[in-house]
Design a protein that fits this description.
Distance between the termini: 37 Å
CATH class of the largest domain: Mainly Alpha
Number of helices: 10
Protein name: TolC family protein
Shape: elongated
Organism: Blastopirellula marina
Keywords: Coiled coil, Signal
GO molecular function, one term: efflux transmembrane transporter activity
Helix content: 55-70%
Number of domains: 2
Largest sheet: 4 strands, antiparallel
Structural class: alpha+beta
Pfam family, one: OEP
Strand order of the largest sheet: 2-3-5-6
């Protein structure tokens, strides 16, 4: 079974929405509404949306008609290459490895040249010589320091995987939102056409004495509302698409997306999802890696007080006796007062705090999972009921009312009303499918969001980190 890191890479580069089930009644264009015999659109309503909305339209890029459609695979691949937070997370790893390298380097030796009493009685001095001095690090401090920062690099690796999931999840979320907005726009156009037919029908009925001015005003108001709803649907598409582009990291021209909201996956079990998050979530794994780093930090600070040995020596020349000489000195600090007591306590406090941080994170993830699972379960219940009962029943009602009209047993406004209700319920179905898909993405993606938030630092705020020559 691939590790979660391999899974994250595959998801980020090649993830696709699972399942290929079609959106019931929402993907294919419904049968056109036949106009009743003799009903001529002799006085069509004003359908110029620019005029209706006083020319206030989205000024961004218009849809491309010859550029094809974006797929989720393409957008995920672009995000992997261009989202800046992924590069930030990778350089967090590089920085920790660089600290590990620096922390394990041995101290440089020092060379000193000494001349004593130069110029006394016009001489070159009593003694001149060179001394080489070296600090010998004790208690395996350098190796422990290197181990600490290597462990921090592992924390950074987990956080980088978490950032990949954040970007991946957000791209999937906004892909689904844009896809849903596209489908809603198609249905909103049908509602506008229904409102236009209703207004024309009302005018004809007014001419025949079968309707009054109140009915005409209501029909006209309904048309204007549907025109505004269509404008809102167009605005929504562009908003979702350009937000999607932000997570991808590329300024793409607006064009349609190719995909499907429906999913044939089995119902997610809450307990299994929670256990999976506890086992595999990169946030949890990063927290456990940080705890191991804090344990190493305690060990490192516990030996910091052990004094290093500084040895120096070298050859010289005594001008008074004309003899070649040598010097040797050994220095060691006596740890009488400062045994690094305060820093040891600080490191121990960080370790205990990190233990509680793991528990806090587990509880926070459980709370977030409970919220998302409620959305997922409610949306799944709505989708199942709408697909199996509500939408089929309303479609049957529309077909029955249409046949009744053709047999002169029903009025055309009744047919339009039924079709309007049928289309509204299909829009609601798309919204429920979108909510279900959003919750699925988050639950399957370890509840990670924030693909444009700065990559997390492997050292949490407040933890010990500022020491000269990192240790």
């Amino acid at each position: 079974m691939p590790s979660y890191r391999q899974l994250a890479f595959l998801l980020l580069c090649w993830g696709t929405f699972s399942g290929a089930a079609s959106l019931a009644w929402g993907q294919a264009s419904p049968a056109p509404i036949p106009s009743p015999p003799g009903l001529l659109l002799t006085s069509p309503p004003n359908n110029n949306l620019d005029t209706v909305a006083a020319g206030v339209r989205w000024t961004g890029d218009q849809p491309r008609t010859n550029g094809g459609s974006f797929t989720l695979d393409q957008l995920l691949d672009l995000a992997a290459q261009n989202n800046p937070t992924i590069l930030q997370a990778q350089f967090q790893i590089t920085a920790s490895l660089a600290k590990a390298q620096q922390a394990g380097l041995y101290p440089n030796p020092t060379v000193t040249y000494t001349a004593e009493n130069i110029g006394v009685e016009g001489t070159a001095g009593e003694w001149q010589g060179a001394e080489l001095q070296q600090r010998f690090v004790t208690a395996n401090k350098l190796q422990i320091s290197r181990d600490k920062y290597l462990q921090r690099a592992k924390v950074a690796e987990h956080l980088a995987v978490a950032q990949q999931f954040r970007v991946c999840n957000d791209v999937r979320l906004y892909f689904a939102k844009t896809l849903a907005a596209q489908q809603i726009l198609t249905l909103q156009k049908e509602l506008l056409k229904t409102a236009e037919d209703n207004l024309v029908t009302t005018r004809e009925q007014l001419n025949l004495g079968q309707a009054n001015q109140v009915d005409l005003h209501k029909a006209n108001a309904m048309l204007r509302r549907e025109q505004l709803a269509l404008l809102q649907a167009e605005n929504r598409i562009r908003r979702e698409f350009f937000q999607l582009c932000a997570f991808v990291g590329v300024d793409l021209p607006y064009q349609p997306l190719a995909g499907d909201l429906a999913d044939n996956a089995e119902l997610i079990d809450f307990d299994q999802a929670y256990q999976r998050i506890l086992r595999e979530s990169p946030q949890i794994l990063a927290s456990h890696s940080k705890l191991r780093e804090d344990r190493i930090t305690v060990s490192r600070e516990s030996v910091e007080w052990v004094p290093d040995v500084i040895v120096g020596g070298g050859p010289g020349y005594n001008f008074e006796s004309s003899d070649a000489t040598a010097a040797l000195n050994v220095m060691i600090e006596l740890p009488i007062y400062d045994r690094n007591q305060g820093t040891i306590r600080q490191a121990q406090s960080d370790y205990v705090r990190q233990q509680n941080e793991i528990r806090r994170l587990e509880m926070k993830l459980r709370m977030t999972l409970a919220e998302q699972y409620e959305h997922y379960l409610s949306a799944s219940q709505h989708v199942l009921t709408y697909e199996e009962i509500v939408v089929p029943e309303l479609r049957a009602a529309y077909e029955t009312s249409l046949k009744s009209y053709q047999a002169n047993r029903a009025e055309w406004p009744n047919v339009l009303h039924v079709y309007h209700d049928f289309t509204q319920r299909r829009i609601e179905l798309i919204e429920h499918l979108l909510q279900k898909r959003i919750s699925e993405i988050l639950i399957e993606g370890y509840l990670l969001q924030g693909g444009l938030d700065a990559a997390s630092n492997p050292t949490p705020p407040g933890h010990i980190d500022a020491t000269p020559n990192p240790r």
